[in-house]
Every structure is written in C-alpha cells, then in structure tokens.
Automatic annotation (TrEMBL), chain B:
Organism in which the protein naturally occurs: Corethrella appendiculata
Any GO CC annotation of this UniProt entry: nucleus
Pfam families reported in the protein's UniProt record: MIF4G (PF02854), MIF4G_like (PF09088), MIF4G_like_2 (PF09090)
Location of the MIF4G domain: 36-248
Subcellular localization(s) per the UniProt record: Nucleus
Protein name: Nuclear cap-binding protein subunit 1
Superkingdom: Eukaryota
C-alpha cells in the first residue's frame, strides 16, 4: 500500500485500509489530458483482464483531466499492474498507479 | 576472529547494538528467540559484502556456531538446509561453512548430512525438482569440503542414472534425473576425476548411452527459430552434455565457481568424511508432474560483443553457469523490477564477462521461452526499461543490437515468439518516445506484404497505434513506410455513406438513430426492427421458423455500435442497454456469427475495438465461444487470417472457456470437501458441543453446507462445460486441418511449392493453439488422435500434433 488516499472516502481510515487490501481497483494518475480509454485499456490489459475503466472527468468541462480508475477481475492482475506499469510511460508521461478502494459513481 | 568480534561486527552492521540490548531487557522470555534470530542473521549475511574477507567471516561464524551447536542444533540444521535450497548461488560458501563445522565437530557433520538427505528425499517425493537439484548440488560440493566421501556420492549419482534407465516411465522423468546429475558435475567433477576416475567415466558412458537413445520429437515445437544458422537451437540435455564433455576435455577445470574451501585446505583435509546412506529415488507416480524439456536460447556469440571481455562459447560450462545464475536472479527479483535490474547489473563476475549481452540474452530467453514464458511478458519489458535507465551508456545500444538481430532472423522465428517480439518492441518504443531508426529496415519494403519482416513492422505499428494515436504514428514514420501504416481507426457506417439510399435497411436504420437518441426501450427497438423483410425467406425455406433475419441484425448492430463509437465506454453502455435485443436476435449460432460479421463490417479499421467488443459479447453471453471460432475461420475473414489481432481474439476466447471450466471444477471440489466435512462433524455432533465454542459448530453445518443435490447439479454443469470445451477445440483443429489440407493438396496438384508465407503463418498458428493451451488440450489428446489427427493426415499437419504430445510423454 502507498500513501495515496481518497480524500472523500466516507468511513474510518481503518475501514479504508481494509478495502484497499482486497481491492481490484487502481487509481491511475499523472495521465496526459489527451490519453484515451483505449490507450489505457491496451496498456493495462497487458497485466490481465480489465473489468472496466472509468475516466476521470473535469467537474465543469466534462473532459478528461489526467486520472482514471482501472478495475480488474482478479487482485493478482491489479498487483501486477502496480508492479510493472506504475512508474513507466504512457503518452510520454510517467503514470502513477495506486490502490483504490473501488470506484463509486460520482467520483469522476 | 573470536566469537565476540563476530557478534560485535553484526551489531555494528545493524547499527543497533543498543536497541537490541534494550529489547532484551524488556522481554527476557524471548531470549532464545532472540539468539535464534541473531544466528539466522549471521548465517544469512556471512556472504554479504563486508570490510573483512570472506575467509575470516567464515572462521568467525564457525566459532560462533560451534558454541551454540549444543542448544540450537536443530535450528542450525534447518537454517543451513534452507540456505542450500533458497540460495543456490551461495552454495560453495555454505558448503565451506559446513566443512569447517564438520572438521570441528564430526557428529554435527553426520547429523547435517542426514538432515540434508532427508530433505532431498522429501523434495523428490513432493516433486520440488529445483529444490532437489540444489540439494544434490550441495551434497556434491560437500565432497569438495571433505564432509562426504566421493565413493558414496558416486553411488547416489549412479542410482539416479538407474532411475533414468527405468522402463515404462515418462521420458521427462528420466530426463530430469540425468539433468540433475549432469548439472552437479561442474562442482564436483574435478574431485571425482582425481579420486574415482574410472567410476566417473563409467557414469558418463551410461549417461551417453541414455542420451543417444532419447527421442527428441518435442525439440522442434520448442525452438524459437527453425533454422540452426547462425546459432543452433539445442535441446537442453544435448547442450549440457556437450558442455560437460568440454569440461572433461579441460580436465574438469572451470573458471566461474568461487571455491572458498580451497583456502581452508589444511583444516578440511584432516576432517573425517561421512558416507551417504543408499538413496533410492521414489518410484514414478501418475500424479507426478516433471519439468518440461526446453531448448537453449542463443542469440549472441563473441563476435557480437567486440569490446571488453570475451563471451564464453556456447559449449563452455561457464555459459551454462552464468545463465543459470542470471535466470535465478530474475526468479528471485521478478516481482520488483528495480531490484531485478540492480541485481542483474551487480552480477558478481561482471568484470570477466560482457555482462550486458549476457543479461539481454537471458531476458529474451525467458520472454521467448516455449510454450509460455515464466512470468508476464510485461515483466520482462519493464525490467529492460529499468536496465536502460540504470545503465544508459551501454544498455540501450546492446538492446538495439539485439532488436536488430531478432529482426534479421525473424524469417524463421516461430509464431508465438513473433507475437511476443511485436508486443515487447511496441511497448518498449512507447516508453522511449517511439524513437527508432526505421530507415535501417528500408530493404524490407521491397518484400511481399506477408513476409515476416514487413509483417513485423506492420504489427508493431498497429500496437504502437493502440498505445498512442494515429497522427503520432504517421509522424514517427518515414514517408517511404506509408504502405505499412495502419489505417485510421474509424467506423465504416454504410447507412450514411453515398449510395446508402439503395440499401434495403437504410430507412429503418435512420429511424433507429432517432429512436436511440430519443432513449427508446429495448422493446421499442424490436418494434422498429419488426418490419424489416427477411432476405432469407425469399428462397424455398420460408416456412422454417428458426430462420433468423440477417437484415435485422445488420441494421441493429451497425447502427447501435456506430452511435456508441465514441469510446469503449459508450459502446459497452449501448450493448448493455440493448442486451435484451441482442439476446433476442442471437438465437442460433448462425445468428451469433452474423452479429460478429456485422461488428467486423463496421469496425474493420479498428482492431482493438473488434477485440474488446468480441470480448464483451462473450462475457455477457450474447455469443458463444464456438461461434467466435467458426467466425474466425469463415470465408469473410480470409483476408484477416494472418493478422495478429484475429489470433488475439481466438486465444481470449479459448482462455475464457478454460477459465470457466477451471472455475466450475474448483467450485465442485470445494463443495465436495465441505459436504464431506459437514457429514463428518455431524456424526460427532454431541462431543463437539462445548459451550465455549457454539459459533464454530453453527458454521460447520450451517449456511454454506451444500446439499447432495446441489453437488450433483454442479457435477452435471462441469460435465457440460467439458463437452463445450472439447467441442471448441474440435472445431478449431478441424478448421485448421481443413484449410491446411486444402492448401497442401492444391499445391501438389498445381505442382507449386507449398511452403508459402501463408502456409507458415497458418501452421504456426496451429502450433500456437496447442502450445499456449497445452494443459487444457492435453485432456483431449486421445479424442483428437482418434477423430482428427489420424494417420492418413498429411504428415506436415500430423507432425505438429506429435510434437505437442511429446511435451509430456
């Protein structure tokens, strides 16, 4: 687990940690605003079967704003993505990969 | 060095002598634990870099351990055995340590040998083949340390070669025993040669006889390249045998293994030796899984690395030892790519070898390993990126040179490795701004499009496109490469194109667009489609009720997916919303194939989209695996047949099927266990009912106890799953046989050479299906043999099947 935590998480820190340890969802940060779901899918499916990708959108403009969530079916695949993709490049930017407690509608 | 200094050394190293003392004051009870921990740390760290020499560290450790042998004997035995298994690269350091202990305490030496022998036997019984091999190597090296007599080791090795000569056991078992014996000889060959020359010769003759009798049907299936120029792709036992023969020629002297015991010769030669007990390898059991054979990967020789130290030759034992060690480093650190890269570059003998070349060769050996690589492909890609970052002055050049070599030899590369090469290279480029000197490969522009070289560039660009975007790919490529560029990944929607008015479905299609934009329901949608005429009903079979309406599917699928074409998410949302309509239309396999055909018609310029849509349709059970397989081999897809993405789709389909069957089988096993446990505990009900433990009882036969009927149903479901799986493989293999036979017969009658690019791709794909899914296909070997791969089949096709069977035989 790393230092990143969802600031809007409702519930105790402990609950959050517990969810993070079971999670199959990753928070992906430092993306280019132009990176698409397709590109992210291609890169992340190299670690396993991706269940879904939720693009982070700007609150007002509804355009991509540099982050997304990638959810896998299996925990092991998400772990591989942490290991092998975090710190490598997509669209020439070093992507950041962290655990996420699971995407809830509205967090975009 | 005395005991005290050894202790204080460690305290200094940890920088925490005081804190340790403090902890001891707080918790006296754990004194023993603490000393055990300290012993462990001393043993583990004796070989690490320190200011004093290894010899003095070993001496110091021996005097520490000698004192504690009384109280902590078992702990020390266990720890040293663990070191033998878990740190094979430090084998000689620990054998020296054991040798010195034996010299001081003969009884301990005996107990240690007993413990090792027991662990060795256990690992053979539990099929831990690597552990067994490292333990055997350790025992062998103990001969060098005067702990074990050479004669008793030879008896053990002889018994192992006996195991290799058993009849009616799988060859892979016999192979392993010979491999284990041969791979200990670099350590102990010299000593055996000096003390027991004729017995050693005898052992080698028996091994040679075994090797000459061995069948090597599997060899061709596992090769990365089909030709032996410039480097032969040797079968692993043949190669090791050649290396050992060369070692024997050199009087068993090698230049790689550090031997710290040589410095203690005077102490060790006075020690008394132990005899190994007679060890008989456990007999074969049908549940035993042995390592599969492999082919030694070779891409470099000394002429490739002109500066610096010379690369040991393919048949020098040093090459074997270096590679084994590098593979080992990857195994230990594959989970932390940064550590992996750092440890590879910090290889202990780096000044004596062209290290970058050795590392790159070993990493590609793993990536191209057949049938499948040990770890995820991206694991190797990410380690290579780290290596480039850590060694920017040399690594990128060596890697570029390797890429050049791989590209030049791609004509004979097997298809699975071709795919992995494409995937790695595109990923690597995407991490380095897609910079590559494409002009160097200009000559391939003159070749036929299906030739592996232009094909490679085409596929790499398609993968690069997926990791970036169309404009970027166009910009990075020289203009001369225009014909290899991917097309722009847009949908082709026929109902708005010119001439659409003449199409039968256009009016309905336009109505659908309005309806979908107006958020219509699935039922509304079916209503809209209702009036479309069925082109199939004009023919004589207009009475057949099950006849699906291809025009309905056409208009619906293409219009819906075109409206959702903005992104994967839009497409998925559209498919989910109208799941019911899909389900209604996809009533038969024919209809499912029709759906796939329409997806293709719309998206033929966007391969990745095709892959994810088919994946989605399988997941939400609109189409079945068998429909996808039939579609891939259909007439409409002939033009796509040699493209990588189509096989990506086929393999994801097979994977889905395999995963489903595995899941069902695991669930059944679990349910059966629960049922058995529940019956057991209910029979001993009364005894267990203690007031302190009521919850456990409830759990035992409570909610999750499956009923017998439920288990029966699961059994039926699994059976049905196996039937589907078998059918899928039968369809695939049957289609392969059909198109390959057709090609071979046609070439024969026309008097043309059958060995075309198309033929090579197709036979390669057939081989790939066998190898990638070998564990699952193995279940159906006998069915396949009796139904499809019969003796009257063309030998070219039959050969692929026989190679596959040989992998486990």
């Amino acid at each position: 687990l790393s230092l990143y935590r969802d600031q809007h998480f409702k519930g105790s820190r402990h609950e959050q940690e517990k969810l993070l340890k079971l999670s199959t969802t990753l928070y992906i940060g430092n993306l280019s605003f132009y990176s698409t779901e397709e590109q992210i899918h291609e890169l992340f499916s190299r670690c396993g079967d991706v269940r879904r990708i939720v693009m982070g959108l700007d609150k007002f403009k509804k355009t991509p704003c540099g982050f997304c969530f990638v959810e896998y079916y299996a925990r092991a695949d998400a772990e591989s993505a942490m290991r092998y993709i975090g710190g490598t490049r997509l669209d020439d930017r070093i992507v950041r990969v962290d655990w996420d407690a699971g995407f809830i509608e509205g967090r975009q | 060095m005395n005991r005290r200094r050894a202790y204080s050394n460690i305290d200094d190293d940890e920088g925490g002598g005081d804190s340790m003392y403090g902890r001891r004051k707080r918790r006296r009870v754990s004194d023993n634990q603490e000393i055990e921990d300290r012993l462990e740390s001393l043993i583990l760290r004796v070989s690490e870099k320190s200011t004093s020499s290894l010899e003095s560290n070993l001496e110091g450790l021996v005097s520490v351990l000698e004192v504690d042998l009384g109280t902590y004997r078992n702990k020390i035995l266990r720890m040293l055995t663990d070191c033998a298994i878990n740190m094979p690269e430090k084998c000689t350091i620990y054998t020296t340590l054991v040798g010195l202990l034996n010299a001081k305490n003969y009884n301990f030496g005996g107990e240690f040998v007993d413990h090792m022998v027991k662990t060795f036997k256990d690992s053979l019984k539990s099929c831990k083949w690597d552990a067994a091999r490292y333990l055997l190597r350790f025992l062998a090296d103990l001969v060098n340390c005067h702990v074990i007599s050479a004669a008793s080791l030879l008896t053990l090795l002889d018994n192992m070669v006996d195991a290799a000569n058993e009849d009616s056991v799988p060859q892979v078992r016999r192979d392993w025993y010979v491999f284990a014996v041969l791979s200990t000889l670099p350590w102990v060959g010299r000593d055996l040669y000096e003390k027991k020359e004729s017995a050693l010769e005898n052992l080698l003759i028996r091994i040679e006889v075994f090797l000459n009798k061995r069948t090597k049907k599997h060899h061709n299936a596992l090769r990365v390249w089909s030709v032996d120029a410039p480097h032969p792709q040797e079968e692993y036992l043949d190669c090791l045998w050649a290396q050992i023969r060369k070692l024997r020629q050199d009087n068993w002297s090698e230049k790689h293994i550090p031997r710290p015991y040589l410095a203690f010769d005077s102490v060790l030669c006075e020690a008394l030796q132990h005899n190994l007990p007679v060890i008989h390898p456990p007999p074969h059991h049908e549940s035993y899984q042995y390592p599969m054979p492999w082919v030694v990967y070779r891409m470099f020789d000394y002429t490739d690395c002109p500066d610096g130290p010379i690369l040991p030759g393919a048949h020098s034992i040093e090459r074997f030892l270096i590679e084994e060690h590098l593979h080992w480093i990857i195994e230990v650190h594959h989970w932390e790519r940064k550590d992996a890269a750092a440890h590879l570059l910090d290889f202990p003998y780096k000044s004596k070898i062209p290290l970058e070349y050795c590392i790159v060769e070993v990493i590609f050996a793993e990536l191209f390993h057949m049938p499948t690589p040990r770890y995820l492909e991206i694991c190797y890609g990410s380690i290579l990126i780290e290596l480039c970052k850590l060694q920017p002055s040399t690594m990128p050049q060596v890697l570029a040179q390797a890429t050049e070599i791989l590209f030049m030899r791609i004509d004979s590369m097997n298809t699975s490795c071709f795919d992995r090469f494409v995937n790695w290279f595109s990923y690597h480029l995407s991490n380095f701004q897609f910079r590559w000197s494409w002009d160097d490969w200009d000559s391939c522009l003159l070749l036929e499009e299906e030739h592996p070289r232009p094909k490679f560039i085409q596929e790499v660009l398609l993968k690069c496109l997926r990791l970036s975007y169309f404009q970027r790919i166009k910009e990075i490529m020289p203009e001369t490469y225009a014909k290899l560029l991917p097309s722009e990944p847009n949908p082709t929607y026929k109902y708005t194109s010119e001439g659409a008015a003449a199409l039968p479905g256009t009016t309905t299609a336009h109505k659908l667009v309005v309806a979908i934009r107006g958020r219509c329901t699935p039922e509304d949608m079916l209503n809209e489609l209702k009036d479309l005429p069925n082109p199939r009903e004009t023919s004589e079979n207009d009475m057949t009720e099950s006849a699906f309406n291809p025009l309905k599917i056409d208009v619906f699928v293409q219009t819906l997916l075109n409206l959702g074409s903005k992104s994967f998410s839009h497409t998925f949302a559209a498919v989910s919303k109208f799941h019911y309509v899909f389900k209604q239309l996809a009533e038969s396999e024919e209809a499912q194939i029709c759906i796939l055909r329409n997806v293709f018609e719309l998206w033929h310029n966007h391969q990745q989209m095709l892959v994810v849509i088919v994946d989605k349709l399988l997941k939400i059970q609109i189409v079945e695996c068998s429909a996808v397989a039939t579609w891939i081999f259909s007439k409409e897809m002939v033009g796509e047949f040699t493209k990588m993405y189509l096989w990506e789709i086929l393999h994801l389909t097979i994977h889905k099927m395999n995963k489903y069957v595995t899941k069902l089988s695991n669930e059944l096993t679990e349910a059966k266990e629960k049922l058995a446990k529940a019956t057991e505990s209910s029979s001993s009900d009364s005894e267990e009912e203690t007031p302190g433990n009521p919850r456990r009882k409830k759990h035992g036969d409570g909610a999750d106890k499956p009923t017998e009927e439920a288990v029966e149903r699961m059994e039926e479901k699994l059976e049905a799953g196996y039937v589907d799986q078998k059918r899928l493989f039968l369809i695939i293999f049957q289609r392969f046989i059909m198109i390959l036979s057709e090609h071979l017969v046609k070439c024969d009658t026309d008097g043309r050479d059958y060995d075309t690019d198309w033929y090579r791709w197709t036979i390669g794909r057939l081989q790939q299906v066998f190898l990638v899914h070998h564990e699952q296909v193995q279940k159906y070997s006998s069915t396949l043999e009796s139904l499809l791969f019969t003796s009257d089949l063309d030998p070219h096709i039959l050969d692929v099947f026989h190679q596959f069977v040989a992998l486990r035989s």
